[in-house]
């Protein structure tokens, strides 16, 4: 009898707890918590953005009449992992020297970065697996060290953002039914290879997989004529993976290009980098200089000028080269799961146009709504007058995100 009584008591307690959770959930939906900033994205750039937001609100504590709120952090995966596609690149060589990445980490106080990356030469680049391990630790430290200032929402997607013109806040609706209210929103949601770039009848390999040395999907290139569309850093990395592999051994590799391959160049004693966003870097840059520019592969490799103005014309050129396999390395587009934008409950028209109108110089999509990372890259003009987009979790990104966070609207309560 005692056992039965205990079992009944346990069920009653369980029922009470369940009702309490439901009441709390309902209360949050009716009166969602209000945050200073909502950061959407758990990849490398999302992690750094959260650290910069935390630095900012901690400084606001010292301003008169200002009671800064917490930062909300939404990640589609777990915070023990690095969000997005970045985990898949562990065997890919980085394109930024280790000491530069460490300097970028050190610019953000809330990261509390003290350890050194385990590499033999910090002046050189390293395999991205080293960065992935470091970022996992930094992500965990942000959550563990900032319970008063940071609210994480793991395995959560933001389905819509509704701006209230009276309260001047965004309400984010999530896939699990919760609502999050924020004065400002930063979308660091990443990007994906352009999904529309696919050949109508030839075998097409995803550039994400082609970047990984000896990836199983590259086996389709064995003894075949392969055409890579694009001679960017990614395109030439893929060419390197094909031509240097003793396993795949393609018959020939063609690279279609719009402009001649360019390399990133440090200027003014390292104060800035020419072609920082568009030039080849690191080991890929050196490989192209040593092997491609010298003609080391002979007729097995060829550059082909692409004068086509449409994808259909480009595909005809690919066919004319007797290609068996094609890999489109033509850049990235915004993640396909961007939130639906609303104002006072009404869905905005021409949302795709709004996202495309993102200002790369300021980082602004709409007032109080910002973007960063590869999905919303910074646009900058170098000291010699050239404008280009820059991506990567490095010093320029940290400086750019700090400017974005300073532009955020802060409200007194």
Kindly describe this structure.
The chain has 413 residues and is α/β, with parallel strands linked by helices. The chain has ten helices and 21 strands. The strands form five sheets. Strands 1, 2, 3, 4, 5, 6, 16, 17, 18 and 19 form a ten-stranded mixed sheet that branches. Strands 8-14-9-10-13 form a five-stranded parallel sheet, with helices on one face. Strands 7-15 form a two-stranded antiparallel ribbon. Strand 5 and strand 6 form a beta hairpin. Helix 2 packs parallel to helix 4, helix 2 packs across helix 10 and helix 6 crosses helix 7. The longest helix has 29 residues. The protein is globular.
State the main characteristics:
single chain; 413 residues; alpha/beta; 10-stranded mixed β-sheet; 5-stranded parallel β-sheet; 10 helices; disordered N terminus
Q: Can I get a quick summary?
A:
This protein is α/β, with parallel strands linked by helices and 413 residues long.
Number of helices in the DSSP assignment: 10
- Roughly what is the average pLDDT, rounded to an integer? 87
Which secondary-structure class do the elements indicate? alpha/beta
What coarse outline follows from CA principal-axis ratios? Answer: globular
- Report the sheet with the most strands, covering strand number, pairing sense and barrel closure: 10 strands, mixed
Model regions low in confidence, pLDDT < 50 over at least 5 residues: 1-9
List the helices and strands and how they pair.
Elements: H1 2-30, E1 34-40, H2 44-60, E2 71-74, H3 98-106, H4 128-145, E3 150-153, E4 158-164, E5 169-174, E6 179-187, E7 191-193, E8 203-204, H5 207-210, E9 225-229, H6 233-243, E10 252-257, E11 265-267, E12 272-274, H7 282-292, E13 301-305, H8 311-320, E14 325-328, E15 332-334, E16 340-343, E17 346-347, H9 351-356, E18 364-366, E19 369-371, E20 378-381, E21 387-390, H10 395-407
Parallel strand pairs: 1-2, 1-6, 2-3, 4-16, 6-19, 8-14, 9-10, 9-14, 10-13
Antiparallel strand pairs: 4-5, 5-6, 7-15, 11-12, 16-17, 18-19, 20-21
Helix pairs in contact: 2-4, 2-10, 3-10, 6-7
